[in-house]
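Support case: user asked for a sample of complex input and structure output to validate their parser. Sending the pair below.
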Amino acid sequence: MNRRYFFLGCLALAGCSRVSSQAKHRVSILRARSYSMDLVSIIRRVLTDHRITVTGKSVVLKPNLVEFSTHAPANTNPLFVAAAAEAFHSLGARQVHIAEGPGHRRATLDMAYDAGFFSTIPAFENRFTDLNLDDVTRVPIETPFSSLSHLYLPNTVLRCDLLVSLPKMKTHHWTGATLSMKNLFGIVPGAVYGWPKNVLHWGGIDECIADLHRLFPRQFCLVDGIEGMEGNGPILGTRNAPGLIVAGSHPPSVDATCCRIMQIDPHQVGYLRLIERHLDWNPSAVQQTGEAIASVKTPFQLIPAFEHLRLHDTA
Amino acid sequence: MIAEADQLQQRLLTAQNSDGGWAYQQGTSWTEPTALALLALAAQKNTGPPYQRGCSWLSNRQRADGGWAPNPGIDASSSVTSVALLALSDTESRMPGFAPAVRWLLEQQNGEIPVLERLALRLLGAAPPKAPGGSAWFPGTAAWISPTVMSVLALSRTARTGALIGPDQERLRPAIKRAQQYILSRKCRDGGWNHGGSSFRSEDAESYPEMTGMALLALQNVSPADIQKPLNRAEAFLSSAHSAEALSWLQLALMRHGRSVKASTTSVVCRNNRDICLRLLALAGTEAGVFAEPLVS
């Protein structure tokens, strides 16, 4: 072995050791071809597999509710939310609450009614909090990515034992993809910041997504990828139906996995790059369970401005 | 309709917090629902002790900079200053804090963009980040329809009452005009308004009923040609309004523009205290002076 090969070998070993030193976060991909399937059993199984213990705990489910009826699926399906609620209850959760704060429209409960939440989830109004109108607490952001030093956040979310992000698998015309991390924009209260929550745009959209991720270290993510939205998401896109649920406790790893399924390069998505660069995380450091990405990949159309995000890796 | 108004008033009075303010749903008192409750009660000629306690709560929460925060625990004044000013304009127009509140609102309005910057934006095909004439929800951010509308209503009310003197009074009319131009510039293709995003990547975005109603309410005294299509859009929305908020703003706007609202048979549910207030204002109809009177006399 000459010195050149010895040097390259050392570099390779250093690279391997860096990846192996990073925790591999577990992400599950599960098939669910329609909302009429036994989603409760599927979600219950994945929670058990991930050793999520909620006995006696309070859980807040945070779906993505953005618009009154649209031409394509923009909201997390109420059947998916109902199944998640039942699964957490069956595992002994003391309380399972549903909460959301839409970004454009103020009539949150009317939107929920229109989207079918009232007819799907018994006593929905008593189990739901409009996070836009909740009482708030000032939360400092230590070493922020964004230009924000603090946020006022709703007490319902701050006081729960486990926050469960239930996003819709969608493309997004500002960030490329909106998944479990971007879904947390919905917890920022409109009554303080307005409709839309424009401070998050001025603070830097990707940076604020990364900040919110760090503010909520105890999370579980269940992505509604049974039906998603491609093209000009999160509202004006069109339907794409991968027939999948993606789940895990580490939002960046869940989102990176969703991106690969959507054939979006996670290394190119701004907020994932921030986490990768600054929080010692690698999108490749995922312990994949369930379906293999290669067998479920479903290319999502991207608007021209985001074609550079396209994942060309066929693996 | 009277029975409905009585029932809603009872709900509103029951929901008043012991400190005199109102929450959006339940919990601590916030500025916007408290100010709307005062407007709604005044429109219903109900200015007894609960109203007076609400006025005290609101006037005592004015901040040193002249504005109001969304709630007392928040360390910044915001666009809720408009609705606070509207609510107190009848009762306390001569109070020391009145002129600072108006000045705070005027300072929040985006100014003109320098010529070179305007040229550069045009070449790039981009919308200005802070469109002239518009107002933000939260200081330091972009302008949107709702806070701009509320600013127009508050400034118009101020201009009409003649509560200010000198340079402050002279600033009002140009500011109102600029805000109306901003609102007109954010009209959707279908003739109505949504929250007011630029058309960049949202060229096909549809209008919302509630924003269309709000915008029309702030567009009194503009060219009829500018609002003909929006008024038709508002009438179309009225028959299928999904929410108390949408129905109320549409009714208030159409009444203001002399259109009929009697044809509406839509049934809506008041989901929170803000909804109750908006319904009470709409039910008061032309009696809801703060929204129904000419904006600028």
